[in-house]
Amino acid sequence: MGSVYVETQNSVWNIRNNNTKINGTDGLSDRVSIGSGVTDVVVSSTVEEVDFSQDISNYKFKQGFGSNMEVQDLNGSTVITLASISGKQLSFGNSVVDLAYSGGKVSVGGAEISTTANTVTPLTTTGFIAQTTKTTTGQEYLEATDSVWTIGNSNTKINGTAGSSDRVSIGLGVTNVVVSSTIEEADFSQDTSNYKFKQGFGSNMEIQDLNGNTVMTLASVSGKKVSFNNSVVDLAYNGDKVSVGGTDISTTASTITPTTTTTTTSNTIAITSNTTAVNGVAEKFTYAIDSSTGTVVSKLTSDITLSGFTVGEDSLTFTDVSSGTVSTATFVSGVTVSTSSINNLTDIIFNTDTSGNTYQLTLAGVVDSTLSTVDMTVA
Q1: Domain range annotation of the chain
Q2: Taking the C-alpha atoms of 295, 306, 358 and 116 in order, what is their torsion angle to the nearest 10 degrees?
Q3: Mean pLDDT, to the nearest integer, of 42-68?
């Protein structure tokens, strides 16, 4: 599990990574929004409000030790664990509820919950925490432990951890991200030709979109990498000039054509929303399933498309629960695999879950009805 330390300055921060610990800042109204399909997020006592994308009826609630509590999806997967809930708020698609702890019991909107996860009907609802003295800039402090972290917030400063390989992925449309010298790699979703590059002071550089909007500012570029949809390039500083893939850039923002490209190390990426693979990068994608009842269901809550998956370079692992019954050999017979040569895709359709929902994973650009060409395993 990696950790994110947020200084939100009363803003709302989007959490898009599984297995994350979110630490707020004392004295600030820290509020986070949990992305659809994200699981196993631990929220510290210094975060005041957590937002969810669905109605409250789509979640179960369970009291933990003392004043801690857990919010699960209807399949029993832990979405978040909250510490010291008194005075906190949860917001859902249809309501906002206060949390309280009294007499050894946790209550959600005035309705007490138990140590067994169940849905809840709040007795009272409320309004959002007042968002006052809002500013435009916050910071995230990452302990990424060699994972790839998706940055979904504009006007953000990203701080890595010295001694670890911190890598961030900049969400499409995100702007004004400042990346510290302790981040080793930054990923972008589009081709190199969709960006302009500008040398800043000393060994700093700026990446802009074609409209001149600053997407990201990098500090101390030497030894860093930047990956794009069509290439991965090394950054360097020779004491005078910053170079991108061997091509010197100037103090005027311009597009470039790298003269050399490189690769990154193999990375594990948990699929929780529509995801695009990076060409030339060996990536290990994981997708959460549950086969404990004898049928294979998705642990996510939406249909998802994985684009750019490269056969022979990337791999796909279906991560099962500890009591799961499916194996790599039996996986294909336990799901429905549908292909379309016209649309150039493969749909992996999971069985109906306990809530009556059926979800699928689409591999765009891959046509394989048996998944025999895909480096696929169940773990």
Answers
A1: 2-112, 138-248, 267-378
A2: 70
A3: 87
